[in-house]
Amino acid sequence: MSVDHPRVEPDPEALAEAAEWLMCLSDSEVTPGQQAQWAAWRNSSAERAQAWARAELLMGKLGGLPPALSLSALDRPSDPGRRRAITRLAVLLALGPASWAGWQMYGQGWAADYRSAVGQRRDVMLADGTQLILNTDTAIDVRFDANERFIRLYRGEILVQTAPDIVVPARPLRVGTGEGVMQALGTRFSVRERQGRTYLAVLEGAVRVQPASAGQAQGRVVAAGEQADFDGQGVGPNQALDSAGTLWTQGMLLADNMRLDELLGELARYQRGFIRCDRQSAGLRVSGAFPISDRGRTLGMLQATYGLEVEERMGGYWTLVSAR
């Protein structure tokens, strides 16, 4: 009679070490001494062996370490770009095989025209006078030609303030995601790409939405004071604008009776590593205005207001919030 054992997740510290070794071993000039050190590390504990098994599975699924990451292995060990790449690789390992299929789309952002780092907000002025604000961990391409101005959002979130085209008058401005295209009709609006859906919020003017796999008749205009989300097949109903959705431009996240796990999921966008809560506290309803760039203050507010316990490991890379 077989016994089903509960699935055990690899140790987060071991996953971070496995990511470091993946980067090291991707170097074409790796030495025999480094290979011996890696073998000793892998065999030193069951947790490390399990973490490396997952790393090997990742390599098999992706056909090798993505080039955008392996290039960073040639930098100095203290190079910030290399450290960021290792962190992202560790996150990918921890998410597991179910999330690896999304790497290809995520990786497109490495060569994007404009990017923002995790926790960074970046202002961009385009050649036509359009102003953009990139939220945390965002990647876009900009392609202007004689017929249109096109912004491709690969991941993340942007706030767009259009301007009269000072280069070629009357060129339409469009923003594209994997789910479709939005055409600005003289406007200020935000666009967020999230898990196979695009979220549009219109603050001024109007935006016409055209899903990628739908006919022109299924397109829709979203007016000022409205928001809508869509996938490649269609657009959801227009709803009243939630003005809190753009408070990130002011460095704040507003929670109004939000579940704790949802709040932490939003905060995690602005932090490196993991921040999670236990099952007992996941459904706790939370309200307040939280600074997205001050991790310590936000966690302190949650502790003081809701009596939660915060446990941090690996220098804050792994954070668990739980009920006392």
Automatic annotation (TrEMBL):
Pfam families: DUF4880 (PF16220), FecR (PF04773). InterPro entries: FecR (IPR006860), FecR_N (IPR032623), Ferrdict_sens_TM (IPR012373). It comes from the Bacteria. Residues 17-57 form the FecR N-terminal domain. Residues 113-208 form the FecR protein domain. This is FecR family protein.
